[in-house]
Amino acid sequence: MVSLPPVPSPAFPSVLSTALAWAGDWWELWALIAAGFLGVRLAPALVARTERPAALPDDVARAVERAGVPADRVGVLRRDGRVVAYAAGLTAVHGRVFVSTGLLRELDPAGVAAVVRHEHAHLARGHVPLRVGIPCAYAVAWAVDATLFGRAGLVAGAVLAVPLAYLSVRVARWSEYDADAVAARGTGEDYRDALARLAAGGHLGRTVPTGGRLRRLLASLSMHPPLGARLGRLDERPDDGTNARPSDGPSTRAARGDD
């Protein structure tokens, strides 16, 4: 009788089991990443519960709607002495924009609407998951590197933390320029005027970083670009004379959560 060679068993189950075992060894990493994304996802609800934001005044709400942002996705925080505006959440569907009563006092309704459109662009354009995802992807790559190469992988991951920080700053600054462009497309000169007025009131820092070399270095690592660079880009934006609002992310219907 002729004996046949043994049939090799599939390698996929072995690879899968190895990958699952590796993932189990790094369960703390997955828990940390999940907690980070979950925290960002739940941020609007957390702010709503702790701060009890109010609805926009009627005139501001109408201006916000004209700017292409659902007014019911914007909450007002009772902070008279502070100018605050930020986006909370991962996407436009579930996220919200919060502004302070101090901002409402500083700007007219058109200016507030322009700032709101800038913040909403962070949600509509996917800036938030991108900025959260970069350090998470780095952490996973570091874990893989450490598993494959041991101590050398750990050292290499630590060294790569420096370019990662630089990349995070560059991406954050790009997202601010991108949100500026979206706000300017939707509100015209109202957005630039709002930035200029907030700067005149000392709410956006200096137009150009000043001070010694260390201070300028720290300013270069800020997630927000210098105001002068932002205004310069807005001035370079081509003006076609239309105040069009092209699609810059999920539609207003999706932003309301009606899909």
UniProtKB/TrEMBL annotation:
Required co-factor(s) are:
Zn(2+)
In terms of InterPro entries, this protein maps to:
HtpX_protease (IPR050083), Peptidase_M48 (IPR001915)
GO MF annotation list: metal ion binding; metalloendopeptidase activity
UniProt superkingdom: Archaea
Matching entries from Pfam families are given as: Peptidase_M48 (PF01435)
Protein's UniProt keywords contain Transmembrane: yes
Q: Where is the composition biased (Basic and acidic residues)?
A: 232-242
GO BP term (any one): proteolysis
Q: Where is this region: Disordered?
A: 228-259
- Indicate the family of this protein: Belongs to the peptidase M48 family.
Alphabetical list of PANTHER family matching this protein: PROTEASE HTPX (PTHR43221), PROTEASE HTPX HOMOLOG (PTHR43221:SF2)
Q: What name does this protein carry?
A: M48 family metalloprotease
Could you tell me which species this protein originates from? Halobaculum saliterrae
